[in-house]
Amino acid sequence: MKVSKEMLKGSTGTLVLTLLAEQPLYGYELIKALEQRSQGVFALKEGTLYPLLHAMENERWVEAYWTEVEGRKRKYYRILEQGTEKLKEKRAEWRLFRGAVDAVLGEEGV
C-alpha cells in the first residue's frame, strides 16, 4: 500500500532532520536511508528532497558542505543547532498528532 503524497508532505522535514541528527549525509544517501528504514514506504524523488534541503538551509536548520570521496565531490548536509531545536519541536508535535489520530481511530494502546 502506498502512502499519499499529502500525508507524507507534512512529515518529510522531520524525517530528514532525524537522519541528519544521526550523521551528515549527501542527497542520495538521504533518499536511500529513508527508503530503507521505512521499508520502501518513503521513496523520495530528488525534486522533493532538494527544495526541502534548500529551505532548511535558508532557515539555518542544516548546512551544506562539499567534500571529496574517492575522487568524487559530494555535497553533504549536516544539522545545525537550530535544526536540532526544530527537530525536538517537530517530534513533540508528532507525538501529539499521532496520539490524537490514534484516539479518533480507536488505535491507542494497540
Automatic annotation (TrEMBL):
InterPro entries registered for this protein in UniProt: Tscrpt_reg_PadR_N, WH-like_DNA-bd_sf, WH_DNA-bd_sf
Gene3D superfamilies named among the record's database cross-references: Winged helix-like DNA-binding domain superfamily/Winged helix DNA-binding domain
TM region positions: none
Family annotation (Pfam families): PadR
Boundaries of every Transcription regulator PadR N-terminal domain copy: 16-89
Entry superkingdom: Bacteria
The name this protein goes by in its record: PadR family transcriptional regulator
Organism from which the protein derives: Paenibacillus donghaensis
